[in-house]
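Lab meeting notes turned into a lecture example. A postdoc, R.K., suggested we walk through two folding results consecutively so the class can see how the record format repeats. The first protein's sequence and structure tokens come next.
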Amino acid sequence: MSLFTGWRAALRIARRDALRAKGRSALVVAMIALPVLGVTAADITYRSAELSPAEELTAEIGSADAVYSDVGLGPIQQMPDGDMYDRASGKEPSEPPKPVDMRAVFPKGVRAISEQSVSATVTTSYGIASTEITEVRTSDRMARGRIALVGGAFPRSPGEVVATEAFLESAGLRVGSDVTVTTSGEKYTITGAVELPADLKAKQLYAEPGAVIAPWAALAKRDKKVPAPQPGETRWLVEGAGEAGIVWQDVLAANKAGALVTSRQVFENPPPESEIPLLRTNPQYANDRSYESDETGAALITVVAMALLEVVLLAGPAFAVGARRSRRQLGLLGTCGGDRSQVRAVVLGGGLVLGGVGAVAGVATGLLLTAVFRPLIEGWAGHRFGSLALHPAELAVIAVLGLVTGLLAAFAPAIVAGRQSVLESLTGRRGVRRGSRVLPITGACVLAVGVLIAVYGGTGGNSTLVAGGSVVAELGLLACIPVIVGLLGRLGRRLPLSPRMALRDAARNRGRTAPAVAAVMAAVAGSVAIATYMSSSLAESDYAYMPMLTKGTIALTAGDSEAAERLPAARAAVEHDMAVTGGRADISRVWAGSDCNAYYEDENGGCGSLSLVKPTGKGHTCPLATKGAKELAARLSADEHRAMMRTPACVDVHNSTGSFSYDSDNIVVGDAALLGTYVKLDDPAAAAALKAGTPVLLNEAYAENGEVTLKAVHTYNAEDKKNRKLHPGPARKTTDRLKVYIAKAEYATTPGIRMILPQPTAERLGLHTQPLGSVYAVAHDPTEAENQRVTAAIDQAGGGLWVQTNSGPNDRGSTILLILTLFAGVVTVGAAAITTGLAKADAEADLTTLSAVGAPPLVRRSLSGFQCLVVALTGVLLGTAAGLVPAVALRLVDLREAMEYMRQQPMESAYTPIVLPWATIGLLAVAVPLLAGGLAALFTRSRVALARRAG
């Protein structure tokens, strides 16, 4: 019989066997298809989420041929894509250039529409909200692709606007509602809901040109109390007269007039470098490139490497169980003259058939699910996909990978089936074989080598070694699984019947249990690796974030003396509409000399100043901000650098954000209530000091011998007659030594406050004070509705005040990592369910024996549940350990990069924590095994008909 004929027969037998055992075949197909589905969906999502350059251009200029804008530099030179430009002369002009008359710059025959934005406050269903209003003809075809209508109609008259869906949701409005621009009093009707495909979270309004800014400016001109609008630059969307659009010569002509142009035609067909004037004068622009984040690249390399291993492992238990269920058929093949190679061919044929079906099903289902959940994923990513990016070559590789998976997974069972004697196959006896002693020892050595490779790659900054070492370590752990499973039987000696039998069954049938545990372990390892890396990255982001206020507080502040008179009404609004917990502290600003609302002292000291003089020397000057800081940083470890950065001398230099008054060097006037409400300092001695008139210093680096030096420059504003009377003559400088109460070092990081000065002490020093506002302790950050209600109340009282809150860290993780986490979690749950289902199918003979000896139905159900629980829990625990290896190694890569940057910039933090995702680990270690065990017990039949014994 030829090789082709033999394989054709083997494939025919495998196909018939698959159709005969539909349930088991479906599980095998699902086992192969599940990881293929995940990889397919992740590939399509990743490719689709990254917009092509053409799609990015459409998001910027819509369907127009070009966009013109005046950058205010006079004649310029630009790159073809419009991202970089410079003055044509390369010099600062002697006088500001005149605005560009765009209509004179446009090529002949073009059609153009203007676009201009202005920040404004508008009424909402809750109160008043700040937003951006853009004047552009949204109904024009040139806006298509940049602004999409999702409901209602575009505005047709000056009294109509459209709003983004994000704005409507935050404002509690809908199509048909009215909004009023508070400064101009003009009312507009929302006729439609739109979205920006490039920014689905944008909260904006769109009006017809001249509908908002012009009436507002006219009112401000008539009424000086109305603030004038501050619109941004005007952009022009242009449609060319011919098919060529706006060509490079048109761009060069516009540059001579001072206009910057982004042209679709030039973007798609850029001119040669010899025709770009900017490159002749600034050759460095030709070398500008953008690079992806090293963190994301390292994470992707490692996750993809572990996903490939996971795909190979997930189908292993399926074919191991399938080969056992078909052992009688394989025995009959031997009795008919089939040799061992033909028996192996039948099992491998099953892998080829089911692997092919699983690969095709996985790719097709992944594509279908991505298309179905596309709106959800786009909302998650924050922008629309240009289209589903299908790369046939990549999808073909994924499908081939699934096919090869079937063959690899069937390889070991095929060898085992080929070695079985015909008698064992026909009688169903499995025989007794002593476990290999070499395999676990080899596995432990490989595990150690893999961990060392991954750690070495991490410390050396080589993400490829991290990926390779992680895979090697997981392979070594796989080799140890049979021994680990064998030890499970010894754990059940004192347990009740069902869990004891489940543990002994797992140990007795290592050939079935070990592959099932390996499958779950592989899936969980990927999830834990991603979750650990993400948790650590978020912790690093949180550490780098410098809050404007203390956590759990908000601040109500007044902009000037007139607004300060309206503080009582504003306080009442805050206390009524926000989740204030009862804690409130009033604060006042303090300054020396004139109050001219300047952020800095001018040459003549015309505004006055007030500052704390920081002593020099050890404990006062930050070593990382002095000469020789780079040499010091080179000798410090990450922990030593972090500890030094947290000292009062350094934290004040690094964490300088937040201030209640720019003219007082973070000195505020307050009482003991400020300590508990804002500083979170529960210290009766500090409260007593304030009552006695002694300032409380929060940063001990400014104190020397229990005193601080307060330097004040008393002067006057020449235009303010009142202040000139108070401070006649030249500027007067005073220096006072004040005894202070020094808080503990941990309070040096308090945002916005360096020292609390009692009111009587400020008056004694001849300083000026004025009520600034209040700080409150709140149960949660204000919601959109709460902010809008308070803003409306403040506006009704006269305005000039605002509520300040912490915005929180900006970077909350990568979209790519979030998508990978989603699919890894799906694979984890699916793998646990399928592998435990296969374990139950392989143990059907044991369940039948239980029924034959009269075991109660509860024992049968509980045994089935505990069998699944053992497989899932063991796999989850081992997978958690395996997943920590690449995550820790990748964080070592990040640490190396952070240390190198810190040694160049000593004041930059090198903090690179490793944070375990306890919520994810707890979910995987508790919820998934319990769910698998519960479902197995629930779907196990209590009673079954006894089967006839074979043979």
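The second example is placed directly after the first for contrast:
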Amino acid sequence: VCGGLVLWIDKQQHSKDSVFFRDGVRRIDFVLSYVDDKDGERKQERRKVYEANLEKVGLELEIEDKSESEDGKTSFVKIHAPWEVLATYADVLKIKVPFKVNDIPDNSEMPMNWLSTPFRLPEHIMHPEPDFFTAPFNKSKSDFFLIDNKDTFFPPSTRNRIVYYILSRCSYFRDECGDKDKKGIKRLLNNSTYTAAFPLHDSRYWKRSRDANCESERFSLYKHWAGFLSFFKEQPLNLVRKYYGEKIGIYFAWLGFYTEMLLFAAIVGTICFIYGFLTYDDNEWSKEICSEAVGGKIVMCPLCDKKCGYWKLNSTCNSSWQSHLFDNVGTVFFAIFMGIWVTLFLEFWKRRQARLEYEWDLVDFEEEQQQLQLRPEYETKCTNRKMNRITQEMEPYLPITSKCARTCLSGATVLFWISLIIACIIGVIAYRLAVYAAFASIMKDSPTTHLQVVGPFITPQLATSVTASCINFVIIMILNLMYERVAVWITDMEIPKTHLEYENKLTVKMFLFQFVNYYSSCFYVAFFKGKFVGYPGDYAYMFGSKLRNEECDPGGCLIELTTQLVIVMTGKQVWGNIQEALVPWLMNWWGSRKARSHPESLYSRWEQDHDLQGFGQLGLFYEYLEMVIQFGFITLFVASFPLAPLMALINNIIEVRVDAWKLTTQFRRPVAAKAHSIGAWQEILNGMAVLSVVTNAFIVAFTSDMIPRLVYMYAYQPEGEMNMKGYINNSLSVFNISAIPPANKPEDGENPFWFNSSITTCRYRDYRYPPGHEKEYSHTMQFWHILAAKLAFIIIMEHVVFLVKFFVAWMIPDVPSDVRARVKRERYLVQEYLHNYEVEKLKVQLSQNTHDECSCAPMIYPSLPKHEVLSECL
């Protein structure tokens, strides 16, 4: 007896870490949790009505009282969906299920497939499933489908998706006054009637479940997918899709494909950077800047009013050498290459996506989602109804006047926040202009205007650029945090009809905001800084203020653009990984600190998952947004930094495993959802791909010094010479110091020790006639030749890249031919098998009817012989 009692107690303890009801048979498909508080009676009434309605629908509930939970406060409602409920709603949601094994031979085996063997996972981990022909489930024809076991026919991800669909549409308010608005689990979570609603993980992530009937797929994902040591292995996408649903599976498929394609861009970018490093000694213009004979004798005009003194050209020696690493002939090649790479990436992804759509039964999903899956918020807030022309049923709708008003308010809010970003950027520009004078004044005592305390490589320009970039990054992060809440609020206000429409609207708002937020400072450095400066005696000022517009180094603004890009891109990636991994881990560690003192056997499966963080409806949205912003950095401004794809590649290798790790270990299991593509992000990527060609062409033409150098070498060098000697002297104009207005002259004590009255002229970066010329200080012909060459280069580069892009897009079909053939054959076979099924069913029914009639024939024709009775019956 004592032994049996011990075994019974042990079984009860072990059963707490289970995904089944207490009977060990019915699977827990969803869990609701709640805590009684001061408003308990009202919430208790809501829960009572809601749970009663769930049981009316057919769901089975089991309550875990708060006295049995580890904190003594939280109660849990475990939900099981029996076969009848699953079959009914699978029919409603048109979930595709198998009806026949695929008999089409698979010819997708690639030649030299053995090369990928080290990167593959074992077959049992990749979760290969028999390839079936599938069709939307029909409850009335359930014997048509391949149903071996009703308990396992629908996988857990499909089960929790069906249950969540029911939870989202079940009422919690007694309909005594005709009020039909109060329904759905989301509203119950918002008003704290329930504290959480989530499906269960099937096991602990670090070990398999003790239950032999449990799949322990979470453990397999953690071991073979979420570990960083598996970074070189393929992702088990089929298992990810089975466990988390197609929407999350598509994201990781896209992220993995993007990372693979980045490898090629990173290799070419690294080669271009190495080329710049190897041609270091051939950099004639940097040699001239650094030499005492040229750069040491050229006196430059002050870069700001009052606080900036005269300076020698060789003070920019280091920045000119650094600029050569990124501003060379290889940069032009790499800009053209990236324009073609981005086209290949998008076209090959379309093919990969089309294959996944077929393999994961998503080919016709969009139409189903648009017609059937209305958002519960839309159904509750839209009281007006009209006939749907397609379904011929009454459905809620939003009046056009209300929709226009909401859209206008939403657009005005977005414009306001974009204007706020632009105002912040103007503030950073004003900071750059103001602080440059301070840095120049501090550094004036050094013979080379370097800050000896910090190091010989810090110049006023570099110090200003780095500090301004850091301040800009901080502003970006603060504005992001503020705008996220605003974007969600105004999207909710618009009341989108479907989940797809909701995500698309939010995507556009967030991307527009972050595009301006992240890229505006780079656009300023690339296309505005140093372009509207004027010249000594006629400088341009910011909005008529006393802040003079910034000038570029004699070596150009490209190195500053590179600095800006590196700081913002690297800072965003590092901060993103810390925020994604460290914050959930710390919150989970703190939240489960009490439970860690309990034995594992008493720490139930639903309590373990309750202590994790909720993934949220927009969890995947922010992952896409992060990667798309990174995509913009490596395409829009890649001409200034060929190592950007390499940095993105390293980040993404980490990102895949960090996302997998946090999803598997730190978050509750998300509700499975379907998606046939990456949605609105596809069009955003296409737009950025086109814009990247334009921006890189303008960067090479106007931000770098590539075109002026080529014009000088081919048109202004002495005849017979094809080198860059004399380029620096040729690219600087001359101005009389005596003609500088008092408002622009340096104050007493601001000039360096070597400056004296014998120096009568200074140089500045421009192509203008010298003093004494009949066209004094107006642009020379060389200026117009260079401008014409820049415009010609932009036109030629854009046309070449766009022609190649369109040709490549035309050559590569969006859907592979074998996939197209398989889709057509599946549709044909579905129709054929359904027809044969109906015919066979009709034959059986007629045969049964005939048998019934014949069995009654002797009573109808008692006087006839037996053979005549049979003949009469037939």
